[in-house]
Amino acid sequence: MRNFGSVLLVFALAACSGPSSHYGDDSGRDPVTPTQFHLPTAEQVNASDLAFGDAFPNLHFADPVAMAQIGSRMLVVERAGRIWSFDPQPDVTDRTLVLDLSENTIVGKDTGMLALAAHPEWGDDASPNSDYIYVYYAYTEGPVPEDPESSTRHYLRLSRFRMGDDYRADPGSETLLIEQRDRNLLHQGGAMFFGADGFLYLGIGDEGGYNCRYGSCQRIDQALFSGIIRIDVDMRGGDISHPIRQTPSRALTDHYYVPNDNPFVDEPDVLEEFYAIGLRNPYRMSHDPVDNVTFLADVGQEQREEIDVLTAGANYQWDVLEGDVAAESTHDPSLPRLGAWTDPVLTYKRNELKAIIGGLVYRGSQLPSLYGSYLYADFRSGNIWAADYEVVGGEVAILADQIVVETSLAGESGITSFFAGTDGELYFTSLGEQTRIHRVEESPTYDDDIPAQLSQTGLFEDVEELRPAPSLLEYEVNVPLWSDGTRKRRFIAVPDGEQARATTQGAWQLPKGTVLVKHFDLVLDEAEPDRVRRLETRVLVVGRAGVLGATYLWREDQSDADLLLEHLEEDYQVKTRTNGSRTQTHVFPSPRECLRCHHEEAGDALGISTRQLDRELVTDDQRRNQMRALAEAGKLDLGRVDLDDTSPLVALDDKDADVEARVHSYLDANCGFCHGTLDLHDVTWDARIQTPLSDAGLIDAPGRSGHHEGNPLIRPGLPEESELYERVRTTDRARRMPPLGTSRPDEAFGELLRQWIVSLGDD
Question: Which residues pair with 573 in a beta bridge?
Fold first, then answer.
């Protein structure tokens, strides 16, 4: 699918205002089929919008494991110890050998040449660092044995080489920074980059073996293993850095200083190079300068794969924990705990990912659906994943994660690294004797672009009055999804000759080509609810495979709305009833955010269900059941639904209903499309209304995380010790629920939830 616009398109619905809905054939208007809207048809919408291809089809490499763009050329690192450069043009046929260390690079299991980084001042003729590159590889005092397992002596080496603007490095220019004796061919790490602070960051594994066999974990007083080191290769001195004070065991270190602000500096008898510890195999990490976040992927043993956020002094807990579960630790419990015990931001069971390959945050322009997402891969399956996240107050919260590309690169030909060119575009490498450099690319599924203005879509006869086209029917719901109190109108158009099919439970079955529209208004003065500003109008087309979403941002003069192509957040001033004012942030989500909620398990479109639409509304001064009117208009097949025997969701402000029914209805509308339909790793509670609360995994059930460590989701009688209550009330965007498209909590629901939890204490 090609995505146009920043869309969340959560069609869980609230009472609407504006023109009366038009149902039946008495409107006096000619019918207009949804395909006559200027939108892609169902056959043109396909969810499989991303694929992988070859970026430079005329070039082949042997087991490429890393890439870098230095100056005008791209450099590729081959695992056997060679580095090549080429001009990054699609039809390039020539490559040049930069460096060959294959006679001293041992290749087996996790070893080989693993990483390359150019000094930030490379190419600056005024700098003494203008021709420096840094290479991390597994060194052996040649010759390299045919059977790597027979090697009796090899080292992890970080070296500097000189490479001029001819892109040729002299092996004789090698300057040794670190040479750490290594006793195993596993868990070499390999994550490396220069930070904005000018320091070099390098990830090194735990020396290999099962359960940290050599006891190198949770130690910063012996050797350089199981952590991230941070060094000053410029040896600036003064208030920036200082000389090496302690040499690791079985190692040589030279030609760098230690930054003065490294977290373990001045502690007695420690290796001050350590910046973070407690890692098993930190194979890849990358820094995103936009969000100022460094993502780090740590390969697991047998229980968990994990993604961490790099922070100074962090202890990621291996080998006491593997991800978020206990490991068979060899760590001496009598030793003091080091650093700041830091949890991963995302974990996977080993039946989901089996060898995580850390990637990067995509900041290119060719793949708008991936912009701002952290991309990574599973070596074993060849799947590429995208995680959407937020950063608030320096804390990272993962909002959603899913597979975005399935490749044939699995197992022995698995993905080895991701790389972004200077233009931000995405490349990745994989193992193979003759393999190419790959890229993720869009696979267009229809020819016509979606219109740039809302007025061009044909959805509304009069855009300024927001008067819908005859076949675009307005409807209401019983319980809205919380959207910061904005006022919303909702519309549906079912193709001529087709019918939606009602179900007693869950989402309706919508015919392909169904169009849904959701319009947002913001009340600017709480004392004058008619004073509104149009914010956005969202469009959803149910396609042959998946959905197409778009959002239109209303202009300042409110005359029309323009297609929005990326995530946007805008602040608006709202006058309060007390004659004060508050700032309300409205979130216009990014294209990828559409697919976070609109998935097959949720029925593509949210909120289109019998429990939501079974209600009365006023049309032509008459009260009519909304579903019955749709059925009479030929747009809905009621199937086995008996409208005289249904259980609609109960509105939050329905004082005639009991508190529990109102709470459960709200949870169903706001949480049920994820909690109960998706595999959310270790989060197992079920918000759907058909699941009795006694069976929903809420009461005295463990929470995933929280300020109150160890508190259950709901602790009867004690809302302040219930994680669910805390998460729906918090203003911390890294923790609040629902996590998408909102900036402030729903205070009315928070109070009702409090009352219900208190009442549970009496039972």
Answer: 583
* Three-class DSSP labels, 193-260: EECCCCCEEEEECCCCCCCCCCCCCCCCCCCCCCEEEEEECCCCCCCCEECCCCCCCCEEECCCEEEC
Which stretches of 602-732 are DSSP H helices?
A: 610-613, 626-632, 659-671, 723-729
Tokens of 373: 């997402």
Give the up-direction half-sphere exposure of residue 25: CA atoms within 13 A in the CB hemisphere. 6
Tens digit of each residue's pLDDT (9 = 90 or more) over 667-726:
999 888 778 776 554 467 898 998 988 888 999 888 754 333 468 999 999 999 999 999
Full-model pTM: 0.62
What are the tokens at 522? 């913001």
The CB density around residue 751, as the number of other CB atoms within 10 Å, is: 12
CA distances to 207, 573, 605 from 189, rounded to whole Å, are: 9, 50, 43
The distance in angstroms from the start CA to the end CA of the chain is 51
Q: What is the pLDDT of residues 137-156, one digit of tens each?
A: 999 987 888 888 777 789 99
Query: What CA–CA distance (Å, rounded) separates 67 from 117?
Result: 9
What's the CA gap between 22 and 620, in Å, rounded?
Answer: 9
Which segments of the chain have a pLDDT < 50? 1-33, 48, 444-447, 681-682, 705-709
What's the pLDDT score for residue 708? Answer: 39
Question: Rounded to whole angstroms, how far apart are CA atoms 191 and 136?
Answer: 9
CB-CB contact of 179 with 139 (8 Å): yes
725-748: b or e for each residue (b if 16 or more CB lie within 10 Å)? bbbbbbeebbbbbbbbbbbebbee
Q: CA–CA separation, 657 vs 583, rounded Å?
A: 34
pLDDT of residue 623: 84
Q: In the beta sheet, which residues pair with residue 315?
A: 277, 341
Q: The sheet that has 438-442: what strands, in order across it?
A: 50-54, 438-442, 426-430, 415-420
The β-bridge relationship of strands 532-542 and 515-523 is antiparallel
* Chain region(s) in the chain for CATH 2.120.10.30: 51-442
Which neighbouring-strand residues pair with 616?
625
Domain spanning 51-442: which CATH class is it, in words? mainly beta
- How far apart CA 458 and CA 469 sit, in angstroms, is 7
How many alpha carbons lie under 13 Å from residue 124 in its C-beta half-sphere? 9
Helix, strand, coil percent content, the chain, rounded in steps of 5: 10, 35, 55
Tokens (6 digits) for 62: 């042997």
> What is the 3-class SS of 140-167, one letter each residue?
ECCCCCCCHHHCCCEEEEEEEEEECCCC
Radius of gyration of the chain (CA): 29
- Please say whether the dihedral angle defined by the alpha carbons of residues 517, 523, 524 and 528, taken in this order, is positive or negative: positive
**DSSP structure class, residue 469:** P
